[in-house]
Structures are given as structure tokens and as C-alpha cells.
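Hi Y.,

Following your request, here is the sequence exactly as I used it, all 442 residues.
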Amino acid sequence: MAVLVAVMSAIIWGSGQMVNRQYIKALFFFAIQMFLIAIELGTGTLALLMGHVPLHFRNAGLFTRGIWGIITLGEIERSSSAVLVYDHSVMLMLGGLIALAILLAFFVIYQWNIRDAYTTAKKMERGEVESSTSYAKRILNDSFEYIAIAPGLAFVVMFSLIPIAFAFLAAFTNYNSHNIPPRHLVEWVGFQTFRDVFNIPVWNTTLVGVFQWTIIWAFAATFAAFTVGFLQAILINSKFVRHPKIWRGILIIPWAVPAILTMLLFRNFFVTSGVINQLLLNAGIISSPISFLGSVGWSRAILIIVNTWLGFPWFMVLVTGVMATLNQEIYEAASIDGANRFQQFKSLTFPTIMAAVAPLLIMSVAGNFNNFGIVFFLTGGGPQNPNYIMAGYTDILITWVYKLTLDHRMYNFASVMSIFIFIIVATVSGWNLLRTRAFKED
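Below is the corresponding structure, written out as C-alpha cells. Let me know if you'd prefer a different format.
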């Protein structure tokens, strides 16, 4: 009996609940099925069946058209303005993703409908009876948190997960400046773009060079800011410094000022006609302006210096907070045992601070790995490297992706780079999460 009821609900939603005499629940599931059918019919399939539009998948409803579109990416390109019926590959892919996301939501309800019919029939065989009202109250109590987050989850899927999925799928197409819809159709090419990135010399050279600098930049920028912040915290918390709160307030100003203003200000300092060159010329130190942002070494050093200026106050406050929690009795015991200040710092202060900030250091490295703003606003990725394709000496992976998309419309190659970045950052972040005490305790 239970199996038969489940099969009935699998064909007509709610029919199994109707047999179980749960009429409100049956009406609910049936209404969901009718809504699903109404979406498909109302968005094109009804007109198609009535012969109002030509018989083709592109004229069908949301779900049929979406599945066809994401599989084929279209069949007719708009070779001229005279072509009135054409396919837009990008819109078809995006529409297909939206259709699949909505179908997935309906599939979850479909599964719920079948499982509910089966379990309820089993309970009735055992003599247990639960009304639709009691069931609704139980679901509300047991699953309130899921019901509450459902609207937010829907927005996350539509405005976050679908764009991410679109960017991911673009890596498996030939979507670039040579294939811009609707004039040209985009086609699935499998892993061809991945092979091109790693096998074509100019792409391979650029990837290796940009990746190496990204790694150097991420670690150098993080540890430079941490070192300066760490030293500032140690000095300010020293008993020889008077009015530490005033000094701490002054040193936190670089963090309080909007970062973009600081970057643009430093850029104006270091341009050829900027303040730094004028001061050096007036002091007679140099005879001609230095091209700070046009030199590979200088531009990279300036990036690290400016990032240190922006980042050290955060580490200073972080280390200060850790130091405020240190147990002073341990230090008193160490002094009694004959340990001097350096030994106390080496064996007590430094290990304690590092144990507390190490996860945040790792996350800062991951953050600097994708630190788009400082590179874009300070150097723009320059100076240009003649051996690179669409990248400069100070470009990191994320700024290279930006140039590939907005400047050169190489969307498929940019998507491959985005996947590459995601794998690295997700690996570092996941490894860091697995090491946290909260995750281990959970």
C-alpha cells in the first residue's frame, strides 16, 4: 500500500496524500505541481502547442528552452541585421542555469511529496494518524530555521551561485573576442582552453610569471605588514613608552582612512612629476626624475610599502589584543627563575602571539592573493612586460583576469584563471579552517 501511494504521488503530486486522507497537504502539493506546469506553459509552451509560433525548442517554455539552450548554446547566429530569428548563446546559457536552479527547487519539493506519502502510509498501517494541521505544526517547529533562511538562500542562488556557475562553464567554451554573441555563436570546446593555457608558449609564460609574482606578493605583503604591526605593538606596550593610547590612536589612522584615497595619494607621490621626485630634485640627490612606476623593482617595492602602510595598523591592534590576555603570573615566575626580558619574549610572548594570529596570517595571505584594489589603483599592473600576453610586471592573477575580461574580452581564458584562483584560495582557506579549534570541536 505504501509503495502504491508513493507511486501515485510521483505521477500526480498530492494524490498519495489524498488517499491518506490528508486533504490540505494533498492540495498543497498539487498546487505546486500546477504552478510548475503553469510556468512552462505560460512562458511559451502553450503558444507552441497552439501553433502560434514555429515548432522549435527556442519557442518552448522556460524549462524546455533552458535545457535545450544550455546543451546547444544556439543554432542560428545573427550574421546580419536582416536576420530576425537568431540565438544568443550567452543568454541561452544563463537562461538554462536559471531554469535548472528552479527545477532543482521543484525537484526537492517533488522528493518531499513522494517521501511524505510513503512514510505517512507506513504510519497509518501501524495505526498512527497525524492530521495535516499537526504535520504543519511539527514541520514549523522542527524546520523553522530552514524555512527562515529559504528566501535568503534563493537570493544567494540567483545572484551568487548562478553567476559563479556561469563563469565556471565559460571556461569550457570558446567565448572570446572572436565569438561575441549574437553575431557569432559560442560553442562547447571541453578542456581545449585549459590545454591552450598550459601548452601555448605565450600563455604558459604569462601564467607562470604572473603566478610566481602573485605568490611572492601575497607572502611579502602579508609578512611585511605583520612585521611592522607586530613591532609597533611590542613597542607601544613597552613600559618605557608613555601615553600608549595616544600613540596607538595615531598609528591606527592609516587603517581608518579609506584605502582607495591612500592608494591614489601614493600614486601621485610616485609619478614622474610627483612629490617624491620634486623633493629629490630640489635636494640635489638626483639630476633627473626617477620613473618609480615604470621600473619593475621600484613598482613592486612600492606596492609592498603601500600595502604595509595600509595593513600594519590591523596587525598592531590584533597583537595588542593578544598581549592584553597574557597571564602576567607566568612572567613573574619566569623572572624568579632567572629569565631575562629577551628570553621571556622568545619563549613566552612570541609563541603565544603566533599561536593566536597564525590562522589570521594564513587568511591574510589568501586575501592578498586576490588583492585587486591596490594593484589596480596604484600601478595598474604596469610596467608592461613584452613577453606577457595582456599582463604587466606587477599584475597578479586577479588583475590579469580583469584585463582579460573587460579590456580584451577573453572570457574563456579569464574563466580558466578564475578557476585556478579559486582552487588555490579554497585550498588555503579550507586547510586553515580544518586546523581551527572550533572546527575540530564541532
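The chain has two domains: 2-190, 195-441.

Thanks again,
Q.
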